Amino acid sequence: MGFEPTLLNMGKHGRILVAMSGGIDSSLAAVLLHEQGYEVIGMTMKTWDYASSGGNKKETGCCSLDSINDARNIAVSLGFPHYILDIREEFGDYVIDHFTGEYLEGRTPNPCVLCNTHIKWDALLRRADNLGCEFIATGHYAKIRKENQRFVISKGIDVLKDQSYVLWGISQESLSRTILPLGGLTKAEIREMAKERGFYDLVNKSESYEICFVPDNDYRGFLKRRIDGLEERVAGGNFVMEDGTVVGKHQGYPFYTIGQRKGLGIALGHPVFVTEIRKDSNEVILGTDTQLYRNAMHVGKVKLHKYENLEGKHLDAVTKVRYKDAGTESVISQIGPDKMEVLFKESVSAIAPGQAAVFYEGDDVIGGGWILKSFNQ
After folding, report:
1. Kind of pairing, strands 356-361 and 339-349?
2. In the chain, what are the domains?
3. Any idea which residues carry the catalytic annotation?
4. pLDDT in tens, 220-277
């Protein structure tokens, strides 16, 4: 679909392109901006066709026809344009290839962060330019402000819904054109606003927390369907205890993640967890829960926001190693152009290479990157 700038009169705050998944958060973001006087254009991105993954569950979530129709209905009810943007090809080439590649490297990927920062924002900004939109907006629970010539991401006020963790990879240039209307609101307030405006279907709509292209949550099945001959390539490796004792055979190292306890298919009379994955030797290392703890890690492909660089500095920060992590006090120091060393003040359990690490100063995101390795020192 080609895009040409519309001929509508600009709203009093300018023209804004809003990413609308069909859920309550992005829908209310569009509604609130419309009420504030922006000239809103809605856009729903089709990232994935679940039928092509070989799954057997009904398509749900942001890519389903129902969600696309829900977004369009909101736009029609308020009288602003709505487009569907098909980015399945660019999404598949980048996000899914990265997803499968990371598991083959023995790491645990975070495709949602990658999609936000490398696909959705870039796709939105390109279409925003074509449509004459100065800004883009999403329904993320986070805030953006300008300070010392830097655009700083900070936590949303709803601590249970805060999504600042997934936004660290967005460039400064992209942040300069991004508005997040929900950062100062709670989920309860958003639900109440939807009720007041008569959008009861949105209030009652269930939310999906699954990876959009693995809606049955069976990532192992997805990998088997996606990678020809995977099982034959990786089967037959050893489960090895931290002391080097071989205790059994596993199904293939890509099918395990750091911290995993259930589904190992091995009984030793006491709980054991995956503490390390060794791709080159096809070994899955097992240990006790205490052996999962590490007090240091290296993070690569770091993107900084609050500060331009941290060269020569040792900065106190709270570091999160996964989305639902409360964070741990740490000292971060830059050890390369885009590499950070993190020393935790208390050891952290189940740090998984491939996941995102995000550094905070109070509510502000200092920056983030991808976990390379964890260790004790």
Report:
1. unpaired
2. 15-204 (3.40.50.620), 235-287 (2.30.30.280), 292-375 (2.40.30.10)
3. 115, 212
4. 999 999 999 999 999 889 999 999 999 999 999 999 999 999 999 999 999 999 999 9
